[in-house]
Amino acid sequence: MEPSHAQALTGAPQLIFGLPIQNERLAKLTRKVLIVALVSAVLVLIPGFIGLASGGGAQAPSLVSGMALALLVPICGYLGAKKSDQNLTCCFCGCNLLGSCLTIFSFVTAFAASGALSYIVQSCDPSNDDGTGCPTADQWLTMCPDLAEGYTAEDCYADLQGKAGNMQSTLHWMVLLQVPSVLVQCLGFCWGHQLYSELKQ
Fold it and tell me: Which UniProt keywords apply (predicted)?
């Protein structure tokens, strides 16, 4: 007589981070979710500590509170997997889905803004402007509110040139830091959903 599916998945208890788990599939999913939760926590802490080291004391409260809030998601995943809690696992799964979607949206928005700014810098020099898709004279005078009152279109153009260079550098760092985070969030969603479905059975 062949063993049932449930019996096939059940064998000697496996120790997952010190937790004895009888079901083989549940053990594998628990290990995956625990690992991705820990990696998520590390990815939250690294930029936070970098910000604390470089931002000075003025930004410390906001950085610490931001880190604490961001750590709630990995904590949900860790505790949900460790305690086999459906609610915490569902929260971890859903938050990772939302987080990955928002991060991807921020990528698209940032690259679109960078493209628009690059076009203005490359094609819209006020001293030699053909007017095609470029700001009008009145628009130039409202595009750089951080400049001192009374600035000219040329002043605004020079300011945007500097911002375009800074934005390119920011995008490079954004990709470097956020792409791993998105990958981890996607894994967190997939494995979290699988673990949640397994716990519901």
Answer: Membrane, Transmembrane, Transmembrane helix
